[in-house]
Amino acid sequence: MRPFFALTGAGGFFFLSSWLLMIFAGNLHDDLGIQPFGYVTAMVATIGLWLVVAPAAGAIASSMRKSA
């Protein structure tokens, strides 16, 4: 049952992360030199970031488990 709750927690965090990315991009678009974008674009960017970061985090976590 624990993996089910972990998945739902990750889903909620995904939507929160997308919303925060949209808010920060809207507030900082002049300083960063980008156009403000909507929630769907923020979701796509968040998926991309998670696809890059998740394997790296998994590799680091598994190497920590093996050495401990």
Please outline what is shown here.
The chain has about 70 residues and is mainly alpha-helical.
What does this structure look like?
This protein has 68 residues and is mainly alpha-helical. The chain has helices spanning 2-32, 39-67. It has one domain (2-67). The chain is built from 2 helices and no strands. Helix 1 (2-32) packs across helix 2. The two termini are 27 Å apart. The model has no long low-confidence stretch (mean pLDDT 87).
Secondary-structure topology with pairs:
Layout: H1 2-32, H2 39-67
Helix pairs in contact: 1-2
Poorly predicted runs of 5 or more residues: none
Number of E-state strands: 0
Number of domains: 1
Summing up helix and strand content along with how strands pair, one would put the structural category as: mainly alpha
Radius of gyration: 16 Å
Question: Helical percent range?
Answer: over 70%
Alpha plus pi helix count: 2
Largest sheet: none
H-E string: HH
Instruction: Report how far the terminal alpha carbons are from each other.
Output: 27 Å
Give the overall shape.
flat
